[in-house]
Write a structure and sequence with these properties.
Length: about 150
């Protein structure tokens, strides 16, 4: 069952990365509302550069940035803390056999907490990326609308 949960978590993380990559590459739709000629439509590149320099956000770099921690949830000490806490509580309740049982239960509980923390970190990293892309898109849209285009 543990292998199934681990595989499911990995698949979820991979799906989030794929979704983010797709979102990061999508630009707002632009329509030349005032009949701009093909030569005037170079405004796209100029507004992209302007938005990039004014926001300090490069959508390509944001898309390429790692999505957050992946793999087994380790390193936060949650399992060790859970084992110690479980051993203490189990030892108080049932002596040495209770301590061993409590430590085992604590390791499992700590693992659950570690996975929860990892998911929270991934969600936070995804939200930060999306926030940066939204900021860039607003600046790009403002530039294009200022030049007479309709942006959606």
């Amino acid at each position: 069952m543990y292998a199934l949960n681990r595989t499911g978590a990995l698949a979820t993380a991979l799906a989030a990365v794929v979704i983010l990559a797709g979102q990061a590459q999508a630009k707002p739709a632009v329509y030349p509302a005032k009949g701009q000629s093909a030569q005037q439509q170079q405004d796209d590149g100029q507004c992209y550069s302007w938005a990039k320099s004014n926001t300090g956000i490069d959508p390509a770099a944001v898309a390429a940035a790692p999505a957050g921690p992946t793999g087994p949830a380790t390193g936060g000490g949650e399992r060790a803390k859970g084992a110690v806490g479980g051993a203490v509580i189990g030892g108080i309740a049932n002596g040495s056999s209770g301590a061993a049982t409590g430590a085992a239960v604590g390791v499992v509980a700590g693992g659950v907490k570690a996975r929860h923390n990892q998911k929270s970190q991934q969600a936070s990293a995804q939200a930060q990326k999306q926030g940066a892309l939204d900021t860039f898109d607003r600046a790009y849209a403002a530039c294009m609308e200022g030049r007479g285009y309709t942006v959606k």
